[in-house]
Amino acid sequence: MPQATRSPFSPQALRFETLVDHGYTPPEHPVGTKLGFFNANPFSTGIANLGYQCVADYLIQRGVNVYFAFADTMNGRAFLNLDIPPCEVDLIAISVPFEDTYLNVLRMLKGAGLPIYARERGSDFPPVIIGGMAMINPLPLQEFGDVFVIGEGRETLYEIVRRFDLCRKHYDKQEFLQAIADLPGVYIPSHFHIRLDADGYVDEFRAIYGSETIVANPPLPLDAYPIHSIWTSRYSCYEYDDYFSLMIAMGCNMKCPYCVVGNTQTDKSGRALISNADQCVEIALNRRERYGTNLIKLFFSSAFHGSLQSNAQELKSLLEILLAHGFQARVGSLNIEQGDDELFRLLKAHGQTKVTFAPESVESLRPSINKEYITDKKLHNLAKLASKHDMDMTLYTLGGLPGENTTHSVQLVQLLRSLRRELKPACRLEIHYNSTIMKAQTPFQFCSTVRPETIRRRYQILKEGLSDLANIQIVSIIDDPMCYFQPILALGDSQVGQVLAHLYTKADVTEADWRSAFPELGLSDQHYFRPKDPDRRLPWEHIVYSNHSLLKRRLVSLARKSGPSPS
Known about the structure:
By secondary structure, the protein is of the alpha/beta class. Helix content is 32%, strand content 15%. The chain contains 17 helices and 20 strands. The chain has helices at residues 16-19, 43-46, 50-60, 102-111, 154-167, 173-180, 260-264, 277-291, 313-324, 341-349, 376-388, 406-422, 452-466, 482-490, 494-503, 511-520, 548-561; strands spanning 34-39, 65-70, 91-95, 128-131, 147-149, 186-187, 192-196, 202-207, 214-215, 244-247, 249-250, 273-274, 295-299, 328-331, 333-334, 354-360, 392-399, 429-435, 472-475, 543-544. The protein is globular, with a radius of gyration of 24 Å. The mean pLDDT is 93.
């Protein structure tokens, strides 16, 4: 949850070279533009963010001076690699990966000595540019950022810097905003007039300057622009002192209707991007030669295949090559179609002690989320393989899917109990159970997230139904305030910005604080938890990753695939 972040580091430790173990020290270019690059996460999470790192590295390699700051490193020292006040840089960019960091955006602006509202920052302040994965819907933060980069940010952010250089000597904020309005993926809220009705639909809309539609930038090809760790730190959120992260794929061909990654991080055709295996090995070898790193974290292994249907052949080949070179690889969640005896054997040989899959729900509901290919029989076969190879098993599950009721919750308990019986007693079963958060730019943007009171009752069914079993663990944020505020922020609008401004100065924001903020401001949270009328215009429909009409058609198609709910 987004508490006011307090630095765990002493002021003397707040230096780039002290916190970062491996990676180059950003150079100082005497005539380069000064970009303050904020990450709204605390250092431990933010330094592990590959998107943040690859943008920073892209800019540094092109002569931009990049100065790093994290949500918990601004106490007494603004930047880790520069001793000047934040307001003295030329531009400020803020990476916002998830909704739980929104309050930190405002806190960092205030900590930098800037007014939090864009309208209060004139030409004597650096322009504030916001981007990151959470900006699939920028409306909750649009009162606070001058510019938003939607989608892939490297090329566009560099072009923003370049155009700033052209007007640096006679900088005028409004002229600058007009000068960059034509750049791909650039959204400037002050160039739009959007008025909402009482139910949260668009009542009036017009573009004051520039295009009426902002098309998100697609990811750059991984072969030409590989994504991997540039900097690593023992203080990161990972349990390893030394590691190297490598993005071997991006996006997903399965297009689950709730998944942001599968619906937004794809190439122009809508397919996942795949890295070249030989290049992956070469990058890993170069990293080891420089720093001696043997542990490689492979991101998006579930999408690392060349066909529309998931298979493990490419992943197994890569694991074989890495093993032959003496590396130890770690993979995260896998597609169930990838799970076979050979893959388990390879993972075990790499030293991995658990396997992770995402069935999400019971068999009768899986067609509604495009996962009808996952059968309970396949899950039991995977549990048998985990037992055979003495590996723990982690399952990602969701509550609150459209059409779900308490009968499904009971069925999920029965499924998990049967999988626990399939595993050896010494093999742990870990269940991640969270609410389905409906997100913008996905087919489920028209659906309603269940209120916390409902999902907590279903969570209680799960906990009670599994409480007598040994060596089973349930991981969830359902009891956290995030269960309440994340659905609101994910499908939020400019009214939510009022709530953020109301709360950001509090040191510890409780669920009661979030709930009371709405009536205190004369607002209601009701429409954020209601299904959306697909014939009405949603507040973020001028932001386009995929055609919103196509998202509506996909939702209708999925509804037809899901059979009647059990009584």
